[in-house]
Design brief:
The complex is a heterodimer of chains A (about 290) and B (about 300).
Chain A: E1 19-30, E2 33-44, E3 48-52, H1 59-67, E4 73-78, E5 81-85, E6 88-89, H2 93-97, E7 99-102, H3 116-121, H4 125-128, H5 136-148, H6 164-176, E8 182-185, H7 194-209, E9 213-217, H8 221-227, E10 230-234, E11 238-242, H9 251-257, H10 264-283
Parallel strand pairs in A: 3-9, 3-10, 7-8, 8-9
Antiparallel strand pairs in A: 1-2, 1-4, 4-5, 5-6, 10-11
Chain B: H1 4-12, H2 18-43, H3 46-65, H4 70-88, H5 96-116, H6 121-130, H7 138-157, H8 159-167, H9 169-174, H10 179-201, H11 206-220, H12 224-249, H13 253-271, H14 277-283
Helix pairs in contact in B: 2-7, 2-10, 2-11, 2-12, 3-4, 3-5, 3-10, 3-11, 4-5, 4-10, 6-10, 7-10, 11-12, 11-13, 12-13
The chains are: A alpha/beta (about 290), B mainly alpha (about 300).
């Protein structure tokens, strides 16, 4: 297996930890239309990767392909196990459990009469198994996940009464209930105000620091440049990827988003990326 | 109008043996539908329930013409339609409600054509559509009891999986749950609940047993467990009161039961402890500011 990853403009700042998620030559065709092709991606534990791209670039489709929810061709390996070679699907329970999925908030039925705790417990439904009830261990893991996202005090509250940021935390806790090594977050910031986004960014940062690979799709480019260790610019394929400092120049963004050189977006990105370079030289590595 | 005491006397009168049987059937159907209906209401499956209810009709009609078992005929037709809807709705080009609309009207039309070919159909047609408390064979009562118990056991056994799918289909699929098979299971359960209820309540009104008690229960609680107890309690109570009123005032039984359940629903809508319209109007002044319904305008920082 090759350790280096193509489709990558950067040569420096390769993650030193081995990749826990690797995607090679991934292609997805939906309804006869190619949505993704030649996607190559590697994410290591401890890394917070931002997946950015214009609408329809295939960000959500990439996450769904990794989860095995859409048919795809190519190779996906999770925690060293090949789960997907060609079109054949082999997905063991241990592989399923090593990925936590946090879908967009509208995928969840918030009007359903369950409490926060019960909602998080559904994350362990396949772990508990058919015809069985939850055991002490399951409740302990739920408690741990709720502690982790600081929602323990609200565990008895009906999910319908939560704010947007709290709802996002419940979905993260549900994914954490299996203690996955990889966390896939689909547009976690959509519809949230800036302070809430910042609190959640802190949480995602901490989750990555706990030896998890955290991958999130993000509409807010400036926020992604600010928060992520590495960015992957996606538009049907990986246009560019690298640290924010490496992507400070306008060229990859112009290619991925099809904006002109004078776009104010580019100026904003350059400024934030510049700021991050200064941060890391002054403050050193976070960990 | 007869008093409740006279009603009890009638129930015990051996000459009126059909009456306790009808009561048992009405209460049993309502209780089973109340539990099944919780899933129907929470998933927004009311229209599917309607489709299955109507689709049972051609099965009943064929069984009637052939002098076969009504329960079996209804079950075959209802479950077939439920499976067809589930399969066709996997195709995203056509929305589920259109698929359902096509199938249930077609099934109902087929039923009407078949039964009109049978001699003396007018009376039977009315019984099928609006329910009847006389002429329920003992074996059907037994079948209904057994089917009801099996349905409760199935819902109990697959409770956490059904809830997980209702909450979030995509994530359930990602976790490895067989989402489509669980959908089919729920459709079959809905179809079976309708089949055992249709003789007493009638084909047109059986949907109310599935939806109304569970919807009323939703107003009264924010917890799933209590909702699954309140739904059948409201349904069973409505069946008891409805049958009494129907018997004593000589009203059609299905219609009376449904109207009683609807009255409970309206009361719950007005007076529910936390979500009732009147309750909220009364406590609005001193209660905390209303929580944001939409995440976009959520006031809290996290």
């Amino acid at each position: 297996m090759t350790a280096t990853v193509a489709g990558d403009t950067s040569t420096s700042a390769r993650p030193t930890a081995p990749a826990v998620l690797e995607v090679h030559d991934l292609a997805v065709v939906l309804g006869g239309r190619p949505v993704l092709k030649d996607v190559r991606l590697a994410v290591a534990e401890g890394e917070l990767l931002g997946l950015v791209g214009p609408n329809g670039a295939g960000k959500t489709t990439l996450l769904r392909a990794v989860l095995g929810l859409v048919p795809s061709s190519g190779r996906i390996s999770i925690a060293g196990q090949d789960v997907h070679r060609g079109r054949k699907r082999t997905r063991s329970a241990s592989v399923t459990r090593s990925i936590g999925y946090v879908p967009q908030r509208h995928e969840f039925a918030w009007d359903f009469p369950v409490t926060v705790e019960e909602a998080v417990l559904t994350g362990r439904v396949t772990r508990i198994g058919w015809l069985r009830g939850a055991r002490t261990e399951d409740y302990r893991e739920v408690r741990r996940a709720l502690d982790r996202v600081e929602m323990t005090h609200l565990r008895k509250r009906p999910v319908g009464e939560l704010s947007g940021g709290q709802r996002q935390r419940v979905l993260v806790a549900r994914a954490l209930a299996l203690d996955p090594r990889i966390l896939l977050l689909d547009e976690p910031f959509t519809g949230l105000d800036v302070p809430t986004q910042e609190h959640l960014t802190e949480l995602f940062r901490e989750l990555a620091d706990e030896e998890r690979a955290v991958i999130m799709t993000n509409h807010d480019l400036v926020g992604a440049v600010h928060a992520c260790d590495r960015l992957c610019l996606l538009n049907r394929t990986v246009v560019a990827s690298g640290t924010p400092a490496e992507l400070a120049g306008p060229e990859p963004w112009m290619r991925a988003f099809g904006v002109s050189a004078g776009s104010p977006l580019l100026t904003a990105i350059a400024q934030v990326a510049q700021g991050r370079t200064t941060d890391s030289s002054a403050g050193g590595e976070r960990s | 109008m007869i008093s409740p005491v006279d009603f009890v006397n009638d129930l015990l009168n051996p000459d009126l043996a059909f009456l306790p049987k009808a009561l048992l059937m009405a209460v049993l159907s309502s209780v089973v539908c109340g539990v099944v209906g919780t899933h129907v209401v929470l998933r927004g499956m009311a229209f599917i329930g309607d489709a299955v209810a109507h689709a049972v009709f051609p099965g009943l009609a064929i069984a009637f013409v052939l002098q076969g078992s009504l329960v079996l005929g209804g079950a075959i037709a209802g479950i077939t339609t439920a499976l067809l809807v589930a399969l066709f709705s996997q195709n995203r080009r056509l929305r589920e409600d259109s698929v359902i609309g096509v199938f249930f009207v077609a099934a109902f039309a087929l039923g009407i054509v078949i039964i009109s070919a049978a001699p003396g159909y007018a009376g039977s047609l009315q019984d099928f559509l609006f329910g009847s408390i006389v002429g329920i064979p003992d074996e059907n009562v037994l079948i209904a009891v057994i089917v009801g118990l099996v349905l409760m056991a199935v819902l109990f056994a697959f409770h956490k999986e059904l809830v997980a799918v209702s909450l979030d289909r995509e994530t359930s699929r990602a976790l490895g749950l067989p989402v489509m098979r669980l959908d089919l299971l729920l459709y079959v359960v809905v179809a079976a609940a309708i089949v055992i209820s249709v003789q007493t309540i009638g084909n047109v009104l059986v949907l109310a047993l599935l939806v109304t008690p569970a919807a009323a229960a939703r107003f009264l609680t924010d917890r799933l467990g209590p909702m699954m107890l309140l739904g059948p309690t409201i349904g069973g109570g409505s069946a008891l009161v409805g049958l009494y009123l129907s018997w004593s005032l000589d009203l059609p039984v299905g219609g009376t039961i449904v109207l009683v359940a609807t009255a409970v629903f309206l009361l719950a809508w007005l007076l529910a402890p936390r979500h009732g319209v009147l309750t909220r109007a009364l406590v609005r002044r001193d209660d905390e500011p209303e929580r944001a319904a939409s995440p976009v305008t959520a006031p809290q920082p996290r």
